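Structure ticket #2291
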Amino acid sequence: MSRRASVVWTPDFLSYDLGGDHPLDPVRLDLTMRLATELGVLEGVELLVPEQAPDSEVERIHTSAYLSAVKSAPEVPFGIGHGLGTEDNPIFMHMHEASALVCGGSLLAAREIAEGRADRAVSIAGGLHHAMADRASGFCVYNDCAIAISWLLDHGFERIAYVDVDVHHGDGVQAAFYDDPRVLTISLHQHPLTLWPGTGWPGEYGKGAGAGYAVNVPLPPDTTDSGWLRAFHAVVPSLLTAFRPQILVTQCGVDTHAEDPLANLSLSVDGHREIYRCLRELAEETAGGKWLATGGGGYGLFRVVPRSWTHLLATVLDRDLPGNTSIPPGWIAHTTTLTRQELPTTMTDGADTSFQPWTEGGERVDTGIIDARRAVFPMHGLDPDDPRD
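Resolution: structure written out below.
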């Protein structure tokens, strides 16, 4: 069935700009919306314009002292602490306002679903999953994902599943709900021995009442579409079926792509499209069709992010694009003025996304699969060694 879906967007999202040659360049958002528009994905869709999240909402996750530091940082660019003013997290003008607007976008998406106006909602500017309670981290000032989840917990949702497919561990969201059994966090990411932030081991499975509700699947460098999808299907569907979330929240970073300059997995745009379809199907099967999708990482600004997130928008809207869809000449002409890179002409990398379902022991990703399953499956009444679970 076709679900009611909302898209949250404002050009003001581009004000979250870390400046200079910083890899998190907002051009990736602009080019995504341009491509989705030119391909007709957004035809007839009323884009929802968010407002800045008020301090009271940001303080669901972040300390008031940290908010004060963020607000004052542009006037006090040195010695501010809280992870601000670093190479990863440079200080920029109107930093609080831009960051609060991203949070407002994810909150608006959550509100659309909670108040029954939509079954699905997407904000590609969101997904800033590394920010901690009292510090910026990994290009992220405020953690919009965690803020939206906290809001949902106070507005009718008692079981929320968060699935993070970014190449980096979803550490900030995990930390926010590490002892909370109402939130199941699942992160598939490049192995922490080989990539920042160095967390996301299978043994990080939650604490106290939250034990078993943090799930981490580390993947070896050079994992391709087939290995990634093998790992996903070996872990995620069983846990979501057992948990029975009332909504699925996803962080859809695309820095898993083979061309991404900051990491070492080897997925394709075709793999990303397949991941989104899997998430949509799991939302239907386990969460009553409720799905809140955010963006996240992705530093292939011109060749990767616009195509992958256009597929995300299309998937949320049930307007799936065939891989061989041609990219409009107007988009290519515009983007050519921004980069000397050779640009793709279709919405595919020509990759094969088929995979062999998991059975213990056969492929490079299986160590991460087995370790993740053995860490948490028994806590959910599942057999970690039985591929049928």
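Closing remark: The longest helix spans residues 95-114.
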